[in-house]
Specification:
Elements (H helix, E strand, L loop, with lengths): L14 H15 L3 H8 L5 H8 L6 H11 L12 H9 L3 H15 L4
Length: 113
Amino acid sequence: MAKIRKPFKYPVIDSKRTGRQIKTECRKQGLTVREIQEFLQIGAAQSIYDWFQGKSLPALDNMVALSRLLGVPMENLIVCRTTCDRQLIACRTNKYNFERVSVYYRRISGCAA
């Protein structure tokens, strides 16, 4: 059994940023949604639009095929949330202060906007 190094921070995939990353890579390659749909043999193009918008993520087999189609490692398509993101998400429970606190937190922590 592999030994887990401590402290281990469980990765959380950011579906919206991952969707934007997939869309960006597809545009770089000049691929249309129709071409992706045909390559992956997906019945509905809406699934791909949903990926691009971060509404859903490709299944693992589709992610592997997509990375091969684009010629990039899967890790280049997946975007994980940072510690800053997780702390801001926790802060969203208080909607009144969220905007003010998020701007302040990003400034003092050096997190990108």
